[in-house]
Structures are given as C-alpha cells and as structure tokens.
User: What shape does this take?
Amino acid sequence: MKDHKIIFATSNEGKMREVRMILSDLGMEILSTKEAGISADIVEDGKTFEENACIKASAIQKLAGGIVLADDSGLEVDYLGGAPGIYSARYMGEDTSYDIKNRDIIDRLADAKGKERSARFVCAIAAALPDGEVLTTRGVIEGEIGYEIAGEGGFGYDPIFYLPERGLTTAQLSAEEKNEISHRGRALRKMKELLRERLGICR
Assistant: This one.
C-alpha cells in the first residue's frame, strides 16, 4: 500500500511541528487537516485516549481517504484522581487559555508535596489506513506538577510538567530534547515503525 502523504488530524501548529520532525524520514508529505482543506466537527466520546484517537482518525479518513493519523493526549495528575485525563483539552472549557488552566492545577495542588505531585503525559496515536485497518500506539512520560509555571517552549501543560531528573519543565527543553522523551514522541516513533512495516518503506 503506497501513499505520498499523511494527514494528521489536528490544526495545532505546535503539535504539527513535533509530528513533522519525527515523521520526516518516512519521505511522505505530512499535512494538517487545515492544510488538507478538511473541516469536521468530530464528537470525541471515547472512554480512553485510544478510543478518541481512533474516532478522529477514522472520521477524517472517511472524508479524505488515504492515510490519516490522529492523537489523543492528556495530563493525568494523581493528586486529582487522574484528572484532567481524556478531558485535558476541554478542562475548564476549550476556549480557556492554558495560562489559566495551568495556574488552576498548581493552585489545586497547593497542599501536595513531593511524590504527591506525581503526574504523567499520555498520548495515543491512531492510524486509519485505506483498507479499513486502524493501528494504535501509546507513549507515556512520567513527571511531577511543578510549583510554578516555567518555560516558554512547548504548548499546553508543558510549563507545569516538571521532570525531576532534568530539573526542568518540558516547556524548558529544546524541541529536539522534548521530541526525544515526550509522550507524543514515543507514540509517534512506535507508529512510524508500524507504518514502515505496513507500507513497505525502507529505512
């Protein structure tokens, strides 16, 4: 099965930069849904990251054909019972800025110390293929919620996701460093290998 392009189901430019960096050596054009001229209001009513990624990828694939990738990712904070989890993008409302969301989470963890601040980023990637098959991969990175917002890089919850072993938030890492260890980077690299296998792409 050959195709010269992959559509990634997002309009998030920060996410697309990460995706292109990691998938660039597949030798295929990587387009966002916006760049592909696709607009769809998809109801993500799955109960897991994988279910939501599959819903998005399959819905866009039916509209666009070809190969469509989608991700669903989020922040799980143990002190908050795993919230915001699959509702990370919708936490406090989709139109609420991440500055406000990040500050709220820090405030809610005001009494949490040390390992009580444990958290993780989770990302599931789904690839909907022309023959109807849907592949999924998962990537996870463990860390903690920082005591303050720090860093100008990344996006979303990166400025509060602290990596104790590095002494930095993921927003303080370079794009290359972040892609090397991030939940999305890990899931994408796994997916890249599955696609190489299915599409017969040589290294």
